[in-house]
Batch of 3 targets.
Target 1
Amino acid sequence: MEPPAEPSEPSEPLPHDLRHETGPFDVVGDVHGCRVELVHLLRELGYSAEGVHPEGRKVAFLGDLVDRGPDTPGVLRLVMPMVAAGNAVCVRGNHEEKLVRALQGHEVQVNHGLERSLDQLAGETAEFRAEVLAFCDSLVPHYVLDGGKLVIAHAGLPERYHGRESARMRSLALWGVRTGEYDARGFPVRYPWACDYRGAAMVLYGHTPVEEPEWVNGTLCLDTGCVFGGRLTALRYPERELVSVPARRTWYEQ
């Protein structure tokens, strides 16, 4: 069963509904500042250096572009123009959420790789930092694409929240639900919402690294732990073809 819902709250249609965007898409898992691997993956997927695909495909980023890796500014310099030009879409991850709060001057715990993003951005111009803040703060928690056939959300999303806007949706899409346990690698164990999913839409997400993507009831996690020495992975949609490139090294020890 799904995690218990909060008491009933106002819920309105999501203003950034992209059902009219039919793809095809290349859906990319958590990048976490791994610019070189992202460039390699986009090349493997057929994109030009400017992020344009000759067949009109678009990239759908699953959030967590930032933190932990060696070049968060470089990743953002690549992704932001692609989104602005309409060659990509991107949802908000929990790491963008925290970076936004830090750049806005709120008190946050500077850990889990945020310290690296802040150090890297400190070497950039004030104008670039302002662009990064505006971009990350503009990202929405999930998108509904292709006439409702595809949903992307950083941590996944149960069907009843698809296309809706609420505090509960935002929390689930960004963070999921922790069980309070940790796996052998030290990652928090999340409530296995996908095991109970029976929705019509395919749901693609990241957030919790997996060694191998596995389909579960029409959902797929595409975070294969690139920043931890794994791989950066994309799913070609609607073909359901996985494309991965290896990490150059372990960039961040968990």
Target 2
Amino acid sequence: MTADHYAALGLAANASLADIKKAFRQKASFYHPDRNDAPDAAQRFQAVQKAYEVLSDDTARQAYDDNRRRNLLDDPLHTAQEIWQAYSTRILTTTTP
């Protein structure tokens, strides 16, 4: 499964660069392994870093968005499963104390 960079930052696909930067700072601070002792903190921190790397670069973001659109058209069932999994994971992790 490919990473959903927008989900890693908690953003919609139409997010502005300012939104991306703000979300990155918040998520990176929260998941930084020195501040968060959760077992998956380092992995989530790396996902946030990679998401920012891709989404903050206009060329990389355009390629990523084009690939997302192509995947949706090529395999909609798989894409729907990925979207649902990312959504349910985000809901479960934000509602769990």
Target 3
Amino acid sequence: MKHLIALAVKFVIITLVLLAVLTWAFDVSFMNTLMISLALTALSYAIGDLLIFLNAGKPENQSTRNTIATFTDFIMALAVILLIGWLLTGEFAALVAPALVSALVLSAGEWFFHQYVDHSVVPWYNEYKSAKG
């Protein structure tokens, strides 16, 4: 249930940012923005939040894990917005600026979302003790 709530929160954040940047500022259609939001939410949560954030360092070193995962989320957001946007609209060069702005704004939000994941979704992860000591 915690993962579903986290996915919903992430989807709302991504959708609001992409609506503001892609749809309102750069005139990308609402449906295309929604499709990009769905794809980015699924990929970003699975890869950036669960795979990379939880495995990018020791559990007690949240800042390092967060930095690595946030950078990865930036690259992933930029790539997904450009690729899916290009596939949906047929435009590539026109999407570079909106994708860059969107990825930067989303990355700032990801820093805080990772803290939410760490404390509310997988709090047991920080209590992990290695068998080696």
